User: Fold this.
Amino acid sequence: MTAPAEPVLPPAAAPPAAAAPADAPIAPPAYTQPPAYTQEPYAAAPPAPVGAPVQAPIPGRTLGIVAFVVSFFASIIGLILGIVALVQSKKAGHKNGWALAAIILGAVFFVITIISIIALVALAAAAVAGLCEGLPPGVYETTTGTTITCG
Assistant:
């Protein structure tokens, strides 16, 4: 067998410095620079995915769809919203089929509403006129408490 190795002793420390006088200020410890990092820098970001770019929304398109739906319930409001949506789209240079359909439907339903109101008024007038048939001129009270003047 071989002889055991002799222990390795650390190098001898520097000789102790001379003691400072008691009234001398104490010097702060010497700072050393931190060790340099060995980490590699981050990799570059991956490229953007390839595909069609996102298109900006067409001005007035959403309002045109809203106008189309509203024109079924409130024709005059749908007509006005459709006109506003069509003007916005035309200013941006786009076509807006929803707004055009809302304008057409709003106008048609508005005309139908006006005709219906005229027909209801005419029917009500005819019904009131029918109540006076065969009665002499005068004021009459119905079973509901309404007074009718014939004559």
In short: The CA atoms of residues 58 and 94 lie 7 Å apart. The chain has a mean pLDDT of 83. The first helix runs from residue 61 to 70. Residues 61-129 form one domain.
